[in-house]
Amino acid sequence: MSLTTLENYYLPDSGRDVVELLQEYGERAMILAGGSFVHGLAARDLLFGIDVFIDIQKLGLTDITVASEGLQIGAMVRFAELAKAPEIQADPGWGAVRDALSYPPVQIMNAATVGGSIAAVCPYFDLPTAWLAIGGKVTAEGIAGSKEISLKDFSTSLFESSLGPDEFLTGLTLPQPAPGSTSAFIKLETNANDLAIVNVAVQFILDPSGVCQSVRVALGGGVNERPLRSASAEKLLTGQKLTDALLKEAGEAIEADISPMADHRATAEYRSAMACVLTERALHRAIARLTRRS
Ligand SMILES: Cc1cc2nc3c(=O)[nH]c(=O)nc-3n(C[C@H](O)[C@H](O)[C@H](O)COP(=O)(O)OP(=O)(O)OC[C@H]3O[C@@H](n4cnc5c(N)ncnc54)[C@H](O)[C@@H]3O)c2cc1C
Questions:
Q1: How far is 187 from 125, CA to CA, in rounded Å?
Q2: Of all atoms in ligand 1, which is nearest to the CA of residue 31?
Q3: Whose CA is nearest to atom 38 of ligand 1?
């Protein structure tokens, strides 16, 4: 399928027009943002039943602003722009986002959008795992107006989201990390341009005595049909001093919460074993970042 046939290509300049097009064409329509994922689907002939593209590049949605609820990131902000944002550059609490943005190749950094990384609901992407560890919500616009959806409720199953048929994403809000926060992300991949075999992101708050006040441990990359948080690891770490032995135990604890997939990249057993190792390493990396303040 060609993405350039003018009869099936729309370039609306308002959110209302996008919603009306989604209403009119229903499941035949697909939003086009950076196009990096859609292009891959088209090249593999996987755009089943799609014959209308709604390009949202004229809507703007490219601002990154600091608000009382946290950092508001427009859905059309490209990865490269986010990586340059001063707000996320220094604070250890944003470390997982910086780490995740260090993996995509430059072409993807320049094309891929924050909204596309979420709306594709691909369990192998890296950024969604980082978003889940940082917490927050997305904003969606539809015929009934705009609404917020918590990131943890956004993905409902493999490639499925809680967006309604007439809704699209306009932005992402991530809470400003609390004092004492730190975070980190690690990806295991077969080569530099490949999707993750496993990825892990953690964010936690340490009080001045080194006790973990709260923690999020998020995993993706095929450890489940959608990125998830490990309640077992989080329970183990909360309220405790983070010793090397405890970090190892927390790494092992995630196994109770995942249901790894098997594919041409890795067996389920390998994914499971690596998810444990990467969780422990991500926790260590986040602690090191707090002492380095970077
Ligand atoms: C070679 C290559 C390397 C990659 N490496 C990495 C990596 O290292 N780490 C990583 O995390 N990811 C990686 N990716 C995946 C990349 O993150 C996604 O392709 C990208 O985030 C998708 O964003 P996009 O703007 O291009 O979306 P598009 O391709 O335009 O759209 C993706 C999907 O989301 C929908 N959509 C897009 N925006 C919206 C919106 N605002 N509202 C509702 N629906 C919307 C589209 O309809 C489509 O279903 C890689 C991809 C490629 C091709």
A1: 10
A2: 47
A3: 116
CA nearest ligand 1 atom 37, residue: 116
Over the stretch 185-194, which tens digit does the pLDDT of each residue have?
Answer: 999 988 877 8
Is the pLDDT score of 220 beyond 50? yes
d(CA 83, CA 95): 11
Choosing among 3.30.390.50, 3.60.15.10, 3.30.70.1120, 3.40.50.720, the CATH entry for 181-292 is: 3.30.390.50
- Tell me the average pLDDT across 47-74: 94
Q: Does domain 6-57 have CATH number 3.30.43?
A: yes
Residue nearest to atom 49 of ligand 1 (CA): 120
Q: Candidates 17, 21, 37: which one to mutate for ligand 1, based on the most atoms within 8 Å of Cβ?
A: 37
Strand order in the sheet with 9-10: 9-10, 52-55, 29-32
Q: Where are the domains of the chain?
A: 6-57, 59-174, 181-292
What is the pLDDT confidence band of residue 134, given thresholds at 50, 70 and 90? very high
**pLDDT above 90 (res 167):** yes
Which range has the worst mean pLDDT, 37-51, 92-106, 114-128, 204-218? 37-51
Chain centre distance of CA 107? 18
% of the chain residues with pLDDT over 70:
97
Identify the residue whose C-alpha is closest to ligand 1 atom 3. 193
> Residue 128 CA: which ligand 1 atom is closest?
11
Cβ of 171 below 6 Å from ligand 1: no
Which amino acid is present at 120?
A: A
Distance CA 130, CA 98 (A): 9
- Check pocket membership of 112 for ligand 1, CB cut-off 6 A: yes
Q: Give 171's Cβ-side CA count (13 Å radius).
A: 17
Check if CATH label 1.10.10.10 holds for domain 59-174: no
